[in-house]
Amino acid sequence: MVKKQEGVKHMQSFSFYSPTKVIFGKGTELGTADEIKKFGGSRVLIVYGGGSVVKSGLLARIEQSLTSAGLAFTSLGGVKPNPRLFLAREGVQKGIDFGVDFVLAVGGGSVIDTAKGIAHGIANPGTDIWKFWLKEVEVTKSLPVGVVLTISAAGSETSDSAVLTDDETWTKRGLSTEFNRPKFVVMNPELTYTLPKYQIACGVVDIMMHTLDRYFTPDEGNAITDEIAEALLRVVIKNGQVVVENPTDYDAASELMWCGSLSHNGLTGLGAKKDFATHQLSHELSGRFDAAHGASLAALWGSWARYTYQEKPERFARFAKNVWSIETNDCKLAAQEAIDKTVAYFSSLGMPTSFSELGIGVQSEEVLQDLTDRCVFHGARTIGQFKVLNRSDVYEIYKLANH
């Protein structure tokens, strides 16, 4: 009989569901229409962002693909970063009027999240979609969504999450439901070649944060989960720098794109509580100031880490050793060095690490208090799991970043 060893951490229970079909490689966008038909689509709403998919000819190629396959379609453009509720509502009505049975997102996270909201709205024509995001109504049905990915960042193409911003109150909310899972994603790294460096860098931070917000958890014992998370972070750190400097490096762009999906499909946090405090903190920042999501995350992570690391310095020490190759037996010193290295990496990408670097300037006490109240829903919730943060904690983190 084998005796149980004292102090040994055991793998925690989990449920993993990641049904999105991934079609990866050069030229894969040309098969988009075939994938739509496989999932029962016949009347399609194409959702896209600014002019880049038009200028590059990608939208025209997608439309030609659908026409050749005998699929009817209509389009909705104009999605912006921090995707707006009003445009999603507009898309719902457009989809209902056209009799849409499939929604195709051509773009990155904001486009995909908008498409998810539209799909929920078309399937539930009597419900305002914002009620789903406010958790007043549960999503019980939706339309199928497909994705042609053009940005390595949000991971929304394989995640159960979607974020929308109410443009009237600048309230930003996230929604997690299995109905947010796209049916398929077409991933051709070449479609990311024309992105501005700032947008690429924002994406690198977003990818890292989707794993960091899972990795820093109070739970232990999931060895393979930790190893996957650490490997993904090392690969992103290495290749993110390459792609920012040379966006047309296919190999580096490929690694980054695949990491983006794996970072947010649930794999890097299995068996552990998700923290996501930095995401919650940044939602209020990007919602109020309309700042890029990745940049807002970079501006806050160092402050969050420095405020919380003493809750469990040995976790940060593991991060220091296995991600940054920092060798020291002093857990607190290792933690501090790892935080400094991570913040320095963000800076090396041209990302902000404070409010002033984000471009919003040093904020007044009134604004800090408002951000804090919004983040904790005026005292109705705490955030985080690595260290549970109350209103006072949230305020102190905003204050640390306010320089």
Helix content: 40-55%
Q: What's the pLDDT, averaged over the residues?
A: 96
What is the CATH third-level topology name of the largest domain? Dehydroquinate synthase-like, alpha domain
Separate helix tally: 16
What is the highest CATH level, the class of the largest domain?
Answer: Mainly Alpha
CATH A-level architecture of the largest domain? Up-down Bundle
User: How would you sum up the major sheet?
Assistant: 6 strands, parallel
H and E order: EHEHHEHEHHEEEEHHHHHHHHHH
Rg, nearest Å: 21 Å
Instruction: State the domain count.
Output: 2
Structural class comes to alpha/beta
Number of strands: 8
- Given as residue ranges, the uncertain stretches (5+ residues, pLDDT < 50) are 1-6
Q: Shape, please?
A: globular
In which order are the strands of the major sheet placed? 1-8-5-4-2-3
CATH superfamily of the largest domain: Dehydroquinate synthase-like - alpha domain
Strand % is: 5-15%
Ends: how far apart? 60 Å
Keywords: Oxidoreductase
GO molecular function, one term: metal ion binding
GO cellular component, one term: cytosol
Domain Fe-containing alcohol dehydrogenase-like C-terminal: 201-400
